Structures are given as structure tokens and as C-alpha cells.
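Q: What would this chain look like folded?
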Amino acid sequence: MTFTDQQPLGSPFSAATTAEQAVAGHDLSGRTAVVTGGYSGLGLETTRALTAAGARVVVPARRPDVARAALRGAAGCEVVPMDLADLDSVRSAAAQVADRFGRLDLLLAVAGVMATPERLVGPGWEGQLAANHFGHFALACELYPLLAAAGGARVVVSSSAGHALTGIRWHDPHFRTGYDKWLAYGQSKTANALFAVHLDALGREDGVRAFALHPGKIITGLQREMTLREQIDRGWVDEHGNVVGAGFKSPSQGAATGLWAATSPLLDGRGGLYLEDCDVARAAAPDTPMDDGGVRAHAVDPEAAARLWELSVAATGATPVAAGPRRKLR
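A: My prediction, written as C-alpha cells:
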């Protein structure tokens, strides 16, 4: 797919669509999904909607006890320990999934962090890039044989309008020359979008299609490392923490685009696209305001996506091969 493919399809849904509406009429019995971050915020809404539609859902969780408590009562759901910033933990979680299931129909990368203080993890990686991108990259590589075995799997990666803040900082992806928490967040969200572009290019012959998306503006635990004053100054909430910003969605509405991406027949035969408001996002000019929506060219550029893939392979130790039927990406 290219920038010119970023054209809305005329979906019957909208920004107001809820998680329940997005999956209504879909019988997911016999389908297996992995949902990172599936026990809080948008991830929890995603897990609830998928299980209600009959899917089995595996939730990798950094805090498994908290996850099990949050998911109590969700039939067809199980938790495995996993920390996205720890690649050994990611590989262990993937191995547990592989031991339990012979195929994987859906991988939804919902977990993420935003605007965190400077934090280096692993071999000195910038923390937001590590948690938001490298962890999900490694997880997808480990789970790829299961996705290929499904013969029609979809991978859905939560990006953000924040991708408009910056492309990949090829000269300094880990901010050695000075940290900016918002540029670090923006880079990680661009990485999420580019990851979907190249995963789709490699996986389509195996029936594995990938999408990235902007869920919308939602107040969830994602803002946990921002102060209340920061959120007030941005016009998001009032002094009591009540949402007052224009255009904000509920968590259920925020989960809807990911669920639409995972299930909509309108996306059959498509992939490598950036979505928002339960439709394909339009192409956006570089000088348009971030809140106006759309996707910037740098976030869906195939050459940048291939370059980031190679960078990610080198960083994580994954060893994907050329695209081809039933070839592993590990």
C-alpha cells in the first residue's frame, strides 16, 4: 500500500461507534486473539468485546494478578505474564501461547506508554520506543508462525495522531543528544504505523494482514505519567479530572476502530493501512493540525518501514527472512 491508498472506504461506522457496535453480528467462536494491554483502558474494552463475540483471548500482562482481577468474569480469557520492555519476557509469553494454541487469528497491540520521563531499558533503548514498538515487534515475530497457520490472520497495532510529531529519528532514535518526551512518544507511534506497513508486505502471501490505527482522544491510564496540571493546561480535563476537551471519546468508542480493523469484511484483501474512526484514514498534508486527523506520509512510507524493520531486527535479535508462503519471521 502507498500514501495514495489512504482513502476512506465509506464505512457505516464513525467516531461515535462503540466496541459492542463494532463487533455486533460477528461470531468469533473458534477464533483466538492476543490482546496486549487487554486488562485496562481500551485493551479491557477490546477484550470484553472479543470474548462477548465468542473469541478466546490471551492477555499478556506485566501485572498478571491485576489483570486477572480486572478480567474476572470474562469467559474465554486467560492471562500470561509479559513485560514489553523485557525481550526475554516477551519470548516466554509467546512460547506459552504457542504451547496452548496451534494458530492465532488476531494479534491486537493495544498496550503502550505516553510522555514518560526519560527512561532507558534493556541495552540503553529509549523507553517509549522499547515498550511501544520493540516489544510488539518481537512479540509479532515470535507469534508469526501461529498467525501464518491461521490462513487469514490480522494484526492490529495501536498508533496515534501523535505520529504527526516526528518521523523516525534515524540519527538519534534513543535521544542520546537530549530527551523530549513528546518527540519520543511521536517517534514510537510512527514506528507502530511503519511496523504495520512492512509486516503486511511480508505477511500477505501467508494471509497475514496488518493495520495501524489512531483510536482517538481518550482519557485512560495512558496518561498516568502526566500530571493533572499538564492535562488541564492542554484543555483535556478540569481541575477535578473530568474530561472537558472537545472530541474526546469514551474508552468503548476508543476501542471500536481496533475491533473494526480486526473483524470488518470491508478490509478483506487489504492491509498496510492506517485507520481512524472505523474507516481508512485520509492522507494528511504535513502542515495540517494534528487534531484534524489523517495520516502523514512519513508514517506509511514503504521505504521507511523496511528501514525500521531492519533496525528493529538488529535491536531485538529477530531474524526475519524474505516474504513467502509459510516462512517464519524469526
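The chain has one domain: 3-316.
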